[in-house]
Amino acid sequence: MGHEVESAAIYGGAWHDAGTRVDHLMSVPEALEEAGLANWALTKRPLYSLNEATGLFEIAPDIYEHVRGKDGKRLGYVGSEYQSLHNETLADIFSLLVDKDGLNVAKMQTAGSLREGKRVFMLLSLPDSGFTVGNQKHPIIPFLLGTNAHDGTSAARFLPTTVDVVCMNTLNAALGQAYADLAVTIRHSGNINEKVVAVQKMLAEAATMFGDFKVKADALDDVGVTKDAYEEFVDFLFPQVDITKQGKRAIQNRNERVLALTQALTEEVKLLPQYTLSSRDEGRGFSYWQLLSAVTRFTTHTVPVRKHGEREEGEVRFERQLLGQGAEFNARATTKILELAGVKS
Fold this sequence. Notes:
The protein is α+β, with helices and mostly antiparallel strands.
């Protein structure tokens, strides 16, 4: 496995190639073990610097290295107030949220470690809040995503997300800033237990939001996209290029992205119950819901990505897919889709 995804346990065959596949939703303890997140034994170690005047090594003030005791891996540098938030603690919060009666019913879709242990993630399935859009019978499943940075760069966060399980697109775009507003942050200092109540409240609010999401999605599915509207949408996302000012490379970049979006849309249309080769050739339309789904497929699956160092393309896409990267692009696209469809945002 490459540099980006250190280890992962993943349920569901549509995710990008990364990690270990499992054939069932996992319990919280099982997810920790299968994803290689158990027993990391995180600890802070003091740093030493050489005092050139005395020739002695002294403890550096207010800075420590954060180390995975399991293998001695240095994950980052942290301050004196920093508290290690163990992977087991992150998992316990999931368990406390769902297993109120001790029934051990929390089910994890995926969990894993990114960037050599610097970042970990867990994705809790909430199938009882799932729904379908229009007549497509695509199950849209809400999840609770928990992430944590062990390198000292950010706090742990819990936030709701929605995924189309047919193609594993993250659909944060449809709710825009509302998802970010619901996120609960758990800093590496203070009383962590106090945040459990906040996460429980966030889940309750998210349930209402998921219901609003379905209403909006059904409305988008009822409106067909015209040829003129689609061209307007593409030009909005990828403005026309003036070769005299921006050059051939800019045109090539635009064409690559338009082609990638078109490929994503083709895949979405193929999922329609009424799709046939003849209907495609006859140019029958698609709805704004398919267009929105194509945008999220584009940002997580087909958008051109460039490798950095040892990072493999599949791993870059996996992180985009899981963490909903491309949020600003998705938000702009969603606003335009709602405008063109005449659906209230």
